[in-house]
Amino acid sequence: MARPQRQVRRWSGFAIALVVASAVVACSGGTGGSGGSGDGDPNAAPASAGGPMGRFPDDKLVLSRWAGDPWTSGQKDAAAAWAKDTGGSLDLDAVPYENLHDKQALALAGAGGYDILYVHPSWFGEFAKAGYLAPIDDKLADPKRNPGGFSADSFLPNVLAQGKYDGKQYCLPDFVSTTVLAYRKDVFEKNGLKPPTTLDEVAADAATLNGKDGMAGIALPGKRGGAVADVMGSLLTAQGNWWFGADGKTTLDKSAAANAVRFYVQAAKNAPSGVLNFHVDEASTAAAQGKAAMIISTTPSLQALEDPAKSSTAGKWGYAPLAFTADKPAGELIYWNWCIAAKSTQQDAAYSFLQWYTSGEQQAKVAIAAATGGATKDFYTNPDVAAKLPFLDAMNKALTTSNPQPSVAAWPKAQDQIELAVQEAIQGKKSPEQAADAMYQAVSSALGG
């Protein structure tokens, strides 16, 4: 699972409400129930234009998410705006990504404590199967609960479908991204190279540029933590293959997997030293500081390239989707889900926040600051967004042929073994073919065949 890019710098004046488990339970008002506190009106019209639906003067919500700016600070502002318009309150329990699953699972398996959960695909299936999440079909379909024009049809169908389990819609998506290539336009021009259109060209250009002006040829993640599997997922999709099929059984083509690993090994030879310790943030930092001529990474991490406060190379980057064949770009669909805890007694208020926060207007604010894509159709017709996200065209091309991040309950174990196999191939401990075989065995074992 892909770790969100973690920013070292924190915005001044921002404090995340780090709540211990017992305090979280107290804040959320107990467990059980399916509606609200009883004193609110979920059908009340927005108090301001484009504002959230409903009035919830006695509801005190607690939201669980990972910590990291600009996302958490932006959400703090959104929570304050929601509270002002609805009369409720919304506290953030933001913890490091590495601890998020375990803290959520512990709370949900016990007395509860959270009302709203930010759930990664790799544990969505686990939580839905366990009954930790509340279905939202009735709320999403009720025109009284949503502003005019907002419904399931507002979302990109393939993205919204990722929040469905056993025929029920549990969550609303956001944080849409994928893996793409960024390349230094000035460096390519200086060295007489055309922008790469295939991964073979990327590998060749990385070898050509490696060492020029003190730069590595390419930066990319090599650390186990989710991003390596995301890149591998895009490389498989670009070859028309995927880890498993609709029946939950592996469909991994070993030759396609070996081809993907072979590219990874070639790229790693021309990456900065210590590539096995690089996650997306380390890779993007290296590229932003002029230490790599190209980078393959997730689109949120690429915001560092264009931020003059962080990058000495801002404005010098071009973007392209990953493709083994020039006219067949592809990518892995990366996303997160906003869900309501089944034990929350304030589900009406929680849905009010989910609906409002995942709307195109709100997602545009998040996206411009955080370099992510929204999940609603109107997000992609917003001219302000298109002007401020230079990678958006490459991202759209990549997602025309995409597979979603796996959300089956057994995936985390397989993912770790996939990433270990890539690392061992980079280290020369396994051939690409041996790494592909290890991946096949890991996926088959985790999925039961």
Automatic annotation (TrEMBL):
PROSITE patterns: PROKAR_LIPOPROTEIN. This is Carbohydrate ABC transporter substrate-binding protein (CUT1 family). Residues 31-55 are annotated as: Disordered. Transmembrane segments: none annotated. Keywords: Signal. Pfam families: SBP_bac_1. The keyword Signal applies. Residues 1-26 form the signal peptide. InterPro entries: Bact_solute-bd_prot1, SBP.
